[in-house]
Design goal:
With 344 residues, the chain is α/β, with parallel strands linked by helices. The protein is built from twelve helices and 15 strands.
Length: 344
């Protein structure tokens, strides 16, 4: 099945290292058995690509892509012209984890789009059909990218916390980057406006955006997390989500957890030190990891996106043509944006 006529070659960004991005030509591969060729329309930047920006990458990065099926290989069911997003992890669908729906913990994962397989900053990307999620024609593809890290990763982290603490009345988020802003928005949607959501960061731009999204902000340039909580009428929180990956942020949020409180670490990065007896056993606190999200969570998150589109789209603040991807990364990594999109 074939839709638009894809060229035999495409120009893609090449992450050279040292904060430099060039362009090279790559062949456009035809889909094989069970594969789809996606014409990428938009891909969102992510802080996890910092390493590729500064250290270089042998593959084309981009793991928050939305686009249209332009060609489909044998034994596929997705129609050419279908719009949707690409799930990061190429899960096998057959292992014990996948059989239970835990696709983010696949034990036979075939790859990660944009990290060890060519990703969404190129105009075409080849994927296995099982990682493509149709979004329908009613959701703009730019906003559809939020189903991935902004909503998917953060909603999964919140739901993991709720598994251990159902009566959450207060929540603290470490980091007001796009994932932190997503955690704020998803917390307000999933938990309701009566739950206090405090979010801390060093970036004035991002704190201002967090405030407009309904968060109680703490400017860490001026005060500690505990001082900021007290200004908002809190001494402790029931649930904390670390999106920053910073050891100091993890420590400070662990210290302000209530009894039975839960710290969910959703950002890769630095370590956490704790006294097991004092910090965990006596107060019955828990520290959890949260990796990406399950593919099946996309279904409920798509409905959330439809229901709250004007609110959620505030997280997207900048868009750049792919030719200006260098400028996009420079601005994004200065902390002066919300979610940034690169469009084909």
């Amino acid at each position: 099945m074939t839709g638009e006529m894809a060229p035999s070659e495409m120009l893609v960004p090449r992450f050279l290292g040292g904060g430099e991005i060039g362009f090279i030509s790559k062949p456009v591969r035809e889909p094989g058995l069970g594969q789809l060729s996606i014409g990428v329309k938009v891909n969102a930047l992510c802080g996890s690509e910092r390493g590729q920006f500064f250290d270089g990458s042998g593959v084309t990065p981009g793991h928050e892509a939305a686009g249209v099926v332009v060609d489909a290989g044998p034994e596929t069911r997705t129609a050419v012209g279908t719009r949707g997003v690409i799930y990061l992890m190429d899960f096998c669908g057959e292992c014990r984890s996948c059989a239970l729906g835990f696709t983010n913990q696949c034990t036979n994962k075939r790859g990660d789009v944009g990290f060890n397989r060519d990703g969404g900053y190129g105009p075409y990307v080849l994927v296995n059909e099982n990682v493509f999620f149709p979004t329908g024609d009613d959701v703009p593809l730019a906003e559809a990218t939020m189903l991935l890290d902004v909503m998917g990763t953060t909603g999964h982290a919140i739901r993991r916390g709720l598994m251990l603490r159902e009566d959450v009345r207060s929540l603290a988020i470490a980091g007001a980057g796009p994932v932190g802003l997503g955690a704020l928005a998803m917390a307000r949607i999933l938990l309701g406006p009566e739950v206090s959501v405090v979010i801390s960061d060093l970036s004035p731009y991002r704190l201002d955006l967090a405030g407009r999204l309904g968060g109680k902000v703490v400017d860490l340039r001026e005060k500690t997390l505990l001082e900021g909580l007290r200004e908002h009428g809190l001494d402790e929180v029931d649930l904390a989500i670390d999106t920053s990956g910073r050891g100091a942020a993890r420590q400070s949020h662990l210290k302000v957890l209530s009894q039975r409180g839960v710290l969910v670490c959703a950002g890769h990065g630095e370590d956490l030190s704790l006294d097991v007896s004092r910090d965990l056993i006596a107060p019955e606190r828990a520290v959890l990891g949260s990796e990406y999200f399950r593919y099946d969570e996309l279904h409920s998150n798509l409905q959330i996106l439809r229901d709250h589109l004007p609110y959620l789209r505030q997280i997207i603040t900048h868009g750049f043509a792919v030719q200006d991807i260098q400028k996009a990364f420079e601005l994004f990594l200065r902390g002066e944006t919300g979610k940034v999109l690169v469009e084909q």
